[in-house]
Amino acid sequence: MELRNLRAFVEVVRQGGFTQAAKKVFATQSTVSKAIKQLEEEIGVPLLDRIGHRSQPTAAGSIVYQRALRILAERDNLVAELEALRGLKGGTLRLGLPPIGSSTLFAPLFAQYRKRYPGIDIRLIEHGSDRLEDLVRAGEIELAASLLPVADEFEWQDVRREPLSVLVSANHLLAGRRSLDLPALRNLPFILFETGFALNRIILEACRRHGFEPTVLARSSQIDFIVELAAADLGVGFLPRMIAEQRKHRSVKRIPLTEPRTDWHMAIIWRRGAFLSHAAKAWLDLLQQSHACK
Question: Residue 90 pLDDT more than 80?
Answer without folding.
Answer: no
